[in-house]
Amino acid sequence: MPARPLVALVGRPNVGKSTLFNRLVGERLAVTNPIPGTTRDRLMSEFEWRGVVFRVVDTGGIEIYEPKGVRDEHPLAEGSSDFVPLIRAQALSAVQEADVLVLLVDALVGVTGADEEVAEILRRTEKPVLVAANKADHASHTGNAVDFYALGVGDVYPVSAIHGIGVGDLLDGVVAALEANAELTPEATFESEDDERLKIAIVGRPNVGKSSLLNRLIGSERVIVSPLAGTTRDAIDTELTFYGEQVLLIDTAGIRKRGKIEPGVEQYSVLRSMNAIERADVALLVIDAIDGITEQDQHIAGYIIEARKSVLIIVNKWDAVDKDAYTMTTFQKQIDEKFNFLPNPPVIYISALTGQRIHLVLEAAKRIWEARHFRIPTGELNRLIRDAYSKHPAPGHGTRRLKLMYASQVRTNPPLILIHVNDPRLVHFTYKRFLENQIRAEYAFEGTPISLSFRARSGLDK
Predict the structure, then answer these.
(1) Pairing state of beta strands 236-242 and 245-251?
(2) Cα–Cα distance between 283 and 446 in angstroms, integer?
(3) Among 307, 312, 101, 290, CA closest to 203
(4) What is the pLDDT of residues 121-162, one digit of tens each?
(5) CB atoms closer than 10 angstroms to residue 394
(6) In angstroms, rounded to a whole number, what is the distance separating the alpha carbons of residues 180 and 307?
(7) Contact predicate 81/255, CB 8 Å
(8) Concatenated DSSP letters for 229-254?
(9) N or C, which end of the chain is more exposed by having fewer CB within 10 Å?
(10) Other beta carbons less than 10 A from residue 460's beta carbon
(11) SS3 (DSSP) at 188
(12) 178 close to 184: Cβ distance less than 8 angstroms
C-alpha cells in the first residue's frame, strides 16, 4: 500500500503553524502559544480532504535570525533559545520528507527577512510550495497577502487558521499541487503497489534490541549496535533471500512517548519509524522482556493497527529473565490483556544476544504475510456468514431486523470483506465483531487486521 501524501507546515516561529495543524486534524494536538519556540518537536496526524487522506506534520519554527525588536517583543520561552538550532534541524528534516510544503507567514506583519530566508531554503528543495498568509481575519488583511508573492515560491492563500477562513482553498491548492507533480505523489514515495516482496519493519521503544535482532536475522553486522538508547537514527533497508523469496527488512529508530522525545534528530527518527510502518506488510513489535509491557509498547501497537499492518510480537532478552514453570504463561497472559485490541498476534520469545529462537521469526512473518494475502473462497465465506446468522441472528431495531444477503472478499493485503445487507444502519458494532470472530474461527488471519464493510443491496427490502 503506498504511503499517504505528507504535507509539512513550515515557517518562522509564531506564524500559526500549530493553530493550522489543529484546524486540519480537528483536535488540539499541538500546544499553541504566542511565545516563539513553544513547538519544540514535530507532530504528525492525518486528515481527509475531498476524498484524499493526507498526513500533516507540524514543525517548530525555522529560525534563521530574529528581526530587530522581535526578541524584545516576544522573548523566547524559558530555555528554548538553546533549542533553536535543533528546532531548525527537525523542521528541515520534515521538509525533506514532505511531498508538499506549506509556508506559513503572518499577513499582519508582512514580509520579513526571516520569511525570505525560509523561502530560499524551500525553493532549493524543488518541491511544490504553497504560501499560507495567516491571520487574514478581515478583508483588509487579505489585501496584505498579495505582498507575499514577492517571495517567489508559489501561490499565496490568505487564511485564518484560528477561524478556518480560506483553509478550504489552501487544501484545494495542495491537491492540485500533488496532481500536477505526479512524481511526488505517494505511489512514488515508497515501493510500488506491484512490489510483491515481503516487507518487514522492526519497531519498538529505544534500546529493546531491534538492531541486534536485525543483525541476527541477516547474519552480519549490517547496522551499528550499541547499549545506548537512540543509537539508530534512521530507517535502514536490508534485502535478503528467505527460502528463495525476497524479503525487505526495515530497521528503525526507537519510538518514545511524546513527552520523552528530544527535539531535533530523535524526533526526525520517529517520523521515519512511522513511515517504516506504513511501508511494511508485517511489523515486528519488539518488547523488552526485562522491562515488561509498557504503555508505549501499547501505543506503538496502536500505530501498527491504525496503519492496517500485520503484527508479530517479539519478546527479546528472554535469556535474561529469571524463570520458573509459570514465567512464560504469566507473560503471555499479560500480552493477551494489554494487547487485547490486536488481531491474534503470534508471540515469539527470543534472545537476539544468544540467537535463541531467532530461526522462528522469519518463518512466522512469512506465515502472517501469506495469511494477509489469503482470499476466502466466496462460497465458503457465504456459508460462514449463513452459519453465523443461524447461530446468532442479528438483534432487531424496533420492528426491523438486519438481513445478511451476500458476502465476498473484495481485497487482500489487508483483507476486506463486503457484506450486502438490507440496511447497514442496523449493523451494531457488537454484531460486526461477532461476525469477524466467526470468520477468524476458521480463517485465523493471525496478526492481521480484517475489515468488514456493509452495503445496502439495491432493489431489496430496506
Answers:
(1) antiparallel
(2) 13
(3) 312
(4) 888 888 899 999 999 887 666 777 889 999 999 899 999 999
(5) 20
(6) 27
(7) no
(8) TT---S-EEEEEEETTEEEEEEE---
(9) C
(10) 12
(11) helix
(12) yes
Q: Which residue has the cell 541486534?
A: 212
Q: Find, among 374, 373, 371, 348, the residue nearest to 361 by Cα.
A: 348
Cell numbers describing residue 380? 465458503
Neighbours of 268 (CB within 10 A): 23
Q: Taking each helix axis from N to C terminus, what angle separates 378-391 and 429-442, rounded to the nearest 10 degrees?
A: 130
As a whole number of angstroms, the distance between CA 189 and CA 100 comes to 12
CA angle 379, 384, 388 (to 5 degrees): 150
- Whole-model pTM: value is 0.61
Whole-angstrom distance, CA of residue 403 vs CA of residue 424: 9
Q: Which of 314, 303, 256 is nearest to 276 (CA)?
A: 303
Give residue-wise pLDDT tens across range 160-193: 999 999 999 999 999 998 888 754 444 333 344 5
Nearest to 60 by CA among 101, 14, 24: 14
d(CA 220, CA 223) in angstroms, rounded, equals 9
Length of the chain, in residues: 462
Question: For the purposes of burial, counting CB atoms within 10 Å of the CB of 429, is it exposed (0-12), middle (13-18) or buried (19 or more)?
Answer: exposed
